[in-house]
Amino acid sequence: MNAATLKQVLNTIAEMFPDARCELNHRNPFELTIAVLLSAQCTDETVNKVTATLFDKYRAPQDYLNVPLEELENDIRRIGLFRNKASNIQKLCRLVIDKHGGEIPRTHEELTELPGVGRKTANVVMSNAFDVPAIAVDTHVERVSKRLGVAKPDDTVLEVEKKLMRKVPREEWTITHHRLIFFGRYHCKAQNPKCELCPVLEHCKEGKSRLKASLKKRRVTS
């Protein structure tokens, strides 16, 4: 898919989801970093339920270090991989205090040095907390990009990100990230995507094939 066609597709998705935004509840860059760390292999809805009480108990990095690891684990037990994430949170808080004066660093390089913070998390924090354009490729962005032919099926997450960055104007990176997430989360789902109602179906080989198979099945059973 070339840049011009992608722009048309993104405009259509923008009309479908005009209020696309980060759905992780947070009040500052530190809370956003913790929330994104917790969201790995977990829904934003579950994370928000956990952080509703977590962020009242733990307001600053030192708060997470003032409790035993087991207590923090228990506080986030509903989150997948909670033991590993609890350990990373405490390590992250220690580094933030020792190296960054208790504040979340504002550069991508420094963010990815934090335990539990990968490229995707850093991009989310940079774009949403510090207003630096970025495209964070999560499972939704990756799936939608590959289905629409923006990226190849065997492209890595980094390759998907680079292709989107080349084809989308820099000032639109962040909003494009949010729109693709909403499209993937609520419309172009991994299971049971809404192909019959999709306004960009013509650009999706998988969707057209899926719809064709569905119609054939209906004819056979009718």
UniProtKB/TrEMBL annotation:
Single GO term (MF): class I DNA-(apurinic or apyrimidinic site) endonuclease activity
Record note on cofactor: Binds 1 [4Fe-4S] cluster.
Record bears the keyword Transcription regulation: no
SMART domains, alphabetized: ENDO3c, FES
Enzyme class per UniProt: lyase
Catalytic activity field: 2'-deoxyribonucleotide-(2'-deoxyribose 5'-phosphate)-2'-deoxyribonucleotide-DNA = a 3'-end 2'-deoxyribonucleotide-(2,3-dehydro-2,3-deoxyribose 5'-phosphate)-DNA + a 5'-end 5'-phospho-2'-deoxyribonucleoside-DNA + H(+)
InterPro entries for this protein: DNA_glycosylase, Endonuclease-III-like_CS2, Endonuclease3_FeS-loop_motif, Endouclease-III_FeS-bd_BS, HhH-GPD_domain, HhH_base_excis_C, HhH_motif, Nth
Xref: CDD domains: ENDO3c
Transmembrane segments: none
Cofactor: [4Fe-4S] cluster
EC number: 4.2.99.18
Top-rank lineage group of the source organism: Bacteria
UniProt keyword list: 4Fe-4S, DNA damage, DNA repair, DNA-binding, Endonuclease, Glycosidase, Hydrolase, Iron, Iron-sulfur, Lyase, Metal-binding, Nuclease
Domain annotation HhH-GPD: ranges: 38-186
Binding positions for [4Fe-4S] cluster per the UniProt entry: 188, 195, 198, 204
UniProt cross-references to HAMAP family, sorted A to Z: Nth
NCBIfam families linked to this entry: nth (TIGR01083)
Entry function: DNA repair enzyme that has both DNA N-glycosylase activity and AP-lyase activity. The DNA N-glycosylase activity releases various damaged pyrimidines from DNA by cleaving the N-glycosidic bond, leaving an AP (apurinic/apyrimidinic) site. The AP-lyase activity cleaves the phosphodiester bond 3' to the AP site by a beta-elimination, leaving a 3'-terminal unsaturated sugar and a product with a terminal 5'-phosphate.
Family as reported in the entry's similarity comment: Belongs to the Nth/MutY family.
Protein's recorded name: Endonuclease III
Gene that encodes it: nth
